[in-house]
Design brief:
Keywords: Disulfide bond, Repeat. It comes from Periophthalmus magnuspinnatus. This is Complement factor properdin. This protein is mostly beta strands. Among the domains are: 1-69, no CATH class; 86-118, no CATH class. 1% of the residues lie in helices and 27% in strands. It contains one helix and 18 strands. It has one helix at 47-50, and strands at residues 24-32, 37-46, 57-59, 65-67, 72-73, 86-94, 97-98, 112-120, 144-149, 167-172, 205-209, 231-235, 262-269, 289-296, 303-304, 326-330, 333-334, 347-351. The strands form eight sheets. The chain has a four-stranded antiparallel beta sheet with strand order 2-1-3-4. Strands 5-7 form a two-stranded antiparallel ribbon. A hairpin with a 5-residue loop joins β3 and β4. The relative contact order is 0.06.
Amino acid sequence: MVLMTPVCGVNDTRVWPWVFCPDGVRCFSQFVVSTLSCEGDIGQVDKDDCCFNPKYGYETEDGQCQSCGPPSWSSWSEWSQCTTLCGAGVRLRRRSCYGIGQSDCEKTGHKQEAERCDGTCCDGEGWSLWSSWSACSVTCGKGGVKSRNRKCTDRSECKLACSGAAEDTQDCVLPTCPVHGGWSAWSEWFECSGSCISLHGATPIRERLRSCSSPPPSVLPPGDDCPGDSLQTQQCTELPHCAVDGGWGPWSDPGPCSVSCGEGLQLSHRSCDQPRPEYGGRHCSGPSTKSSVCDSPCPVPNFWTDWSHWSECSGTCLPDGGTAPHRTRRRVCVSPSGSGTCEGSNHERGPCPGLSYCQGQSSAL
């Protein structure tokens, strides 16, 4: 069974009965010799119970870590610097006693040792020369400070030669500072430049002003003017649109004549759309149509010319049993419109009058 250290104030009867710690300390599971510190916080327990393990440690009233082990000396510290910079002197080293019963350490040694030493004569090896003065902390006016520095030697045994401050400061006074201009607060917005937004989107604007007077720029020395603009504009987008009265567009070309033959009428139209009436504007006044007289030519029907004279007969006598001689005549179809035809034929065939039978043929024929 593992022996558990009772923790003050923990009531768990399966492990320990109720434990009171009249001599309670803050207990740690490890005492670190190299740093004389405690690690591994266990909690508040009785000091005798904490030190049941000699490797443990506890926190004393002054906040130091105390080892639970037997009294022992720590390692010696490094030797201190020699007490003189030049000639015979003394240097020291120290060690600490830790553990329970520290008074027994004095029986086995001392906390401090001293030995003779010779100073290294650090004449001239203390401070370096002062650096140049820095620029003033301000560029004009009062309240500025400039500084310079010096450095102590890197040799540790000669650092005692460095007495005094490593930095030196001094007030610096410069010419008067210029006063740069500052803007005043913006004025209230002025009234809008119009009462409505026009047809073409021209929105009225409002303006407000500010002045470079808080403070005004100084003259000597000259200060800078205020950056930015002294005038600010804003569109009055909350205004209603202006009423737009309607305007007539151009007349259209005349339409077709109302009759196809003779005298009639043809119409022209226009629209109220240049511009259209909007936002309560008036409609165009006057008619949207107009008429004009038109004259359509009436069509002339096609017709025949008079017949031509009869042609000569195709023969001079009547044959016995063959085709009798004939004659022809012609006429022309006239079309004033340049198209169409005339009813009937353009040529005619007729007998030859007054012919006698050819010789040698019987008159009975």
